Amino acid sequence: MQLTIITDLNKCVGCKSCQVSCKEHNTSGDFGPVPDHDPYREAEGMWWNRVIGMEAGEYPHVGVMYLPKACMHCYDAPCVPVCPTGASYKRDDNGVVLVDYEACIGCQLCMWACPYGVREFDEHEGVVKKCTLCIDRIEDESLPPEDRQPACVQSCPTHARTFGDLEDPDSAVAHLVAERQGFVLLPELGARPAIHYLPRRHAPGWVDAETIERVLGEGS
Amino acid sequence: MRPTGPLLTLTLLQGVSWGVMAVVTAAIFGAWPVSMATVHAWEWLAWGTGALGGSASVFHMHRLAAARHVLRRLRSSWLSREALSTGGYMAVLSVAVALRVLWPQARGLWEAATLLAAGLGAVAVYITAMLYATIPAMRSWHSPLTVVVFFAAALLSGLAGAGAVAAWTGGPGRGGLPGVEAAAALVFGALVALQIRAFRLAAAGVLAATGTGLAGRPYRLQDAGGSRPPYRTQTQIWPVLPAAVRTSGYAAVLVLAVVGPCLAALQGTAGLVWGAGSAWLGVALSRGMFFADATHSSRVWFADQPKIPSPVRREPGRPYRRRTSIKL
Ligand code: SF4
Ligand code: SF4
Ligand code: SF4
């Protein structure tokens, strides 16, 4: 089993709901509180999920894209073997990469080794923290089944994010990756991320007022 | 990558310590007509710098409570290996120093312990360099050049330290050292020049196309998701150095680490002390640049992709000319 989240870049509108709900859940959640002592004033504090906004091309051929980026729960996670204490580890049963805060010495070598810049250093506790794939939610049997999914997935208003087992060929995430050419970030660095993205499809061309009137007319 | 005091101190002083031990080894094998007083002073210098460097590494750990676990991943972690090799080097070096102080007549034993310490020191420098060179995400460091530069820096700073001590202790131990130090400085300078080029290529190799799936270029970052310099919680990244800072930084490295020791060598033994100061400053600054100018793969989400003109496109009215350098 390899749990993952698939994000459809066509649906992501950059609202940052996942970024904020991740922080909200992990500030009050069970696994490891995000240690922002002054979260409303320190916007540059710790975020386990950051929505990157970028634009490409030159006017008028410009594209804008939003990219939610958290731990990729890599198959060959480079953050794991470099860790001297064994604090960083990948679970055999579900493929989630976690940090054992009790064993972490805060050397930050894993932060250098992670190609994706998704590990965050907690200055107050002296340890490194990151996305846990909401392990405390997905394994909490006291929650109703529909709530046993990551906070960022559940809060996405456009349903851009889908959670599931990438190694189950019948799962929704496996279907999405297979049918929609799911891709991973920085594949050349060899970490083999489990988290995939669905590429943006060709944007619809120019829609003129006449077409809008016609479509609205068809609907009425 | 954020340069931090403990990392700079550890890597620099470990290098000085082993570099001095390399000079001691050469002296034991008769490379220089050297007094035992000078050799012993060298060994103290190696011990002192090694102990200071090792102590500094403790401050790089932010949670000492877990330090007992640090050797758990010897099979895969260069940091576990670094802790073991640096500790082993200092232990054997301490035995060598203690033998000479407490049992001066056992010269053979002292020599054996000293040579063993020098060998372990080389292993420790290699392991420390490999820690940096084996991280694919650190695009600038992921190269055998990193290991070579670490050894060259260690030799230059060790020779400089040994030269300064020899000038201070007097005696016949000074012969030949200024020339060797100048040669080491020239080699170091050539390697720094190669490293500057490797760092620029690494910066140019961080591509938005694979980092985002956006093929169109150039791209601009609108929002880094709340990340802001100096990236307090994301220490793998560091603001891109302005071109003027980078150029003057590397120029200062070359002046201090190469020109200084070479000019000092022209003065013979009279220049050993200031030549050493110049070399040490230059090597220290070069290590600062090693961290501050390094490109991590995650920079693709922290800064705009640099605009790089086509190296092979013919400019209007100009003959075809293949560009051989990359300007960022
Ligand atoms: S994304 Fe980074 S932190 Fe997460 S598993 Fe991969 S290497 Fe480790
Ligand atoms: S910071 Fe903690 S988790 Fe990361 S490599 Fe060091 S000990 Fe391991
Ligand atoms: S899975 Fe949980 S911890 Fe990871 S980014 Fe989503 S909300 Fe945050």
UniProtKB/TrEMBL annotation, chain A:
Q: Which residues form the signal peptide?
A: none
Please name the PROSITE patterns in this protein's record: 4FE4S_FER_1, 4FE4S_FER_2
Keywords (A to Z) from UniProt: 4Fe-4S, Iron, Iron-sulfur, Metal-binding
Recorded hits in InterPro entries, A to Z, give: 4Fe4S_Fe-S-bd, 4Fe4S_Fe_S_CS, ET_IronSulfur_Cluster-Binding
Q: Where is the 4Fe-4S ferredoxin-type domain?
A: 3-32, 62-93, 95-124
Keyword field contains Iron-sulfur: yes
Q: Which CDD domains match?
A: PsrB
Keyword Coiled coil assigned to the entry: answer is no
Against Pfam families, the record matches this protein to: Fer4_11
Q: What is this protein called?
A: 4Fe-4S ferredoxin
Question: What organism is listed for this UniProt entry?
Answer: Sulfobacillus thermotolerans
From TrEMBL, chain B:
Asked whether the UniProt record includes Transmembrane among its keywords, one would answer yes
Question: Where is the chain membrane-spanning?
Answer: 7-32, 44-62, 83-103, 109-133, 145-169, 175-194, 272-292
| Transmembrane helix keyword on record | yes
Keywords per UniProt: Membrane, Transmembrane, Transmembrane helix
Q: Which PANTHER family match?
A: ANAEROBIC DIMETHYL SULFOXIDE REDUCTASE CHAIN C, ANAEROBIC DIMETHYL SULFOXIDE REDUCTASE CHAIN YNFH
Q: What is this protein called?
A: DMSO reductase
